[in-house]
Amino acid sequence: MTVDPPWALLAELTHGCPLRCGYCSNPVELTGRSRELGADQWSDVFRQAAALGVVQTHLSGGEPLLRRDLPRIVAAADTAGLYTQLVTSGVGLGDRRMAELVEAGLRSVQLSVQHADPTASERIAGARSFAAKERAARLISASGLPFGLNIVLHRANLDALDELIDLGLAWGADRIELAHTQFHGWALRNRAALLPTREQVERARGVVVRRRELLDGVVELVWVAPDWVEATAKPCMGGWGAVSLTVAPDGTVLPCPAAAALPGLDPPNVRVRELAWIWRESKAFNAYRGESWMPEPCRGCALRSVDHGGCRCQAHALTGDAARTDPACRHAPDHHLVRDPVHGPRTGLAYAHREGAP
Amino acid sequence: MTWRPVLHRSVVLRHDRVRGIDLLLLPERVVVLHGSAGRVLGLCDGSRAVDDIVAELGARYPGAPVAGEVPEFLTALRKEGWLR
């Protein structure tokens, strides 16, 4: 089988983060700072990625601003010819940092916010952060770089969608991404508090339709659908080993950021293997590539080329078997695992937050 | 009005050596350019008016239907917000 080259690289520079969001989709066990790749190793990863066909990289984490060598890392990505986007909480972004990053060749910034109300935002983030985000938004806007505002949606902020969109406009965002929580890693622990009601999702969808019309393309509103509530499998990563690859802080290479949790995957590491081999030949990247791994009902389903069988990590988290149809899909034999909580009663809104630093 | 098209600051025109195609890179998006679209956009540096671009392409590719297609293509990309 010939393997098409990847388009995008998610570079998780660190698992360290000043926030402790209840919806964090990073693994429960985080990688320690001492095991992180150095700037020279990242530089080599970017060169290999570009040679393989990658044209875009998202510098993410954790909080990439915790890396003092971030401008060097950005410069390395830009020199390799990659379109480089910073994905940040905004905490730690000051005047000088912003200027250094622009100088290094940063092309765009995605800033996260948890709620339009500062107190609610900090409660969800589990840390004081709203003032820092406001300052970051001012700096990004003033830099002239394309500015995306990302809001992870769940039960505690879905009713404030209008206010969140207003916040994005006030902060000068070019693009507002409204992305429903993905129940991976830490987020799965807080599922009961995070899972929105069906009524909330319906109202929110109405708000998006109305605001999109009013905005008329001036600011892009992106709605990432809630797979649980819609009972529809998400086209996870555009297919396994099809579009994108993730390099974790310690150099582990994964077909998706949540895949570290899959047992038996034996993911390769850039410290040991060439990225081209990892992408084309490794067992991990071929495990669910294409359609031959698919069980019924995916195998005979017309949607298999659209949703690629949904999310392998979700199938594993809920059923213990990554090769089963994603239980989010209404046709999945295990769909009750998703349907029951969605239709069931809701508990309180208290989150378990991470303790200690990675 | 003399429009001198230039790519929006968020848009990068790049030749993809691996795939042998021209691309527009944007935040969260990659646009694959077909045929000579990349060569047309390579002339959109803010210094040339649309007429200049058409003339330059006409000289470079005699007989190509540039006069009709190029302004239409540029207008479509302006509508997307990729050219200004």
From TrEMBL, chain A:
Its EC number is 1.21.98.4. The keyword Oxidoreductase applies. Its cofactor is [4Fe-4S] cluster. Transmembrane segments: none annotated. It is an enzyme of class 1 (oxidoreductase). Residues 3-218 form the Radical SAM core domain. [4Fe-4S] cluster binds at C17, C21, C24. It catalyses: [PQQ precursor protein] + S-adenosyl-L-methionine = E-Y cross-linked-[PQQ precursor protein] + 5'-deoxyadenosine + L-methionine + H(+). Pathway: Cofactor biosynthesis; pyrroloquinoline quinone biosynthesis. InterPro entries: 4Fe4S-binding_SPASM_dom (IPR023885), Aldolase_TIM (IPR013785), Elp3/MiaA/NifB-like_rSAM (IPR006638), MoaA_NifB_PqqE_Fe-S-bd_CS (IPR000385), PQQ_synth_PqqE_bac (IPR011843), PqqE-like (IPR017200), Radical_SAM_PqqE_MftC-like (IPR050377), rSAM (IPR007197). Binds 1 [4Fe-4S] cluster. The cluster is coordinated with 3 cysteines and an exchangeable S-adenosyl-L-methionine. NCBIfam families: PQQ_syn_pqqE (TIGR02109), rSAM_more_4Fe4S (TIGR04085). Catalyzes the cross-linking of a glutamate residue and a tyrosine residue in the PqqA protein as part of the biosynthesis of pyrroloquinoline quinone (PQQ). Belongs to the radical SAM superfamily. PqqE family. PANTHER family: PQQA PEPTIDE CYCLASE, RADICAL SAM DOMAIN PROTEIN. This is PqqA peptide cyclase. The gene is pqqE.
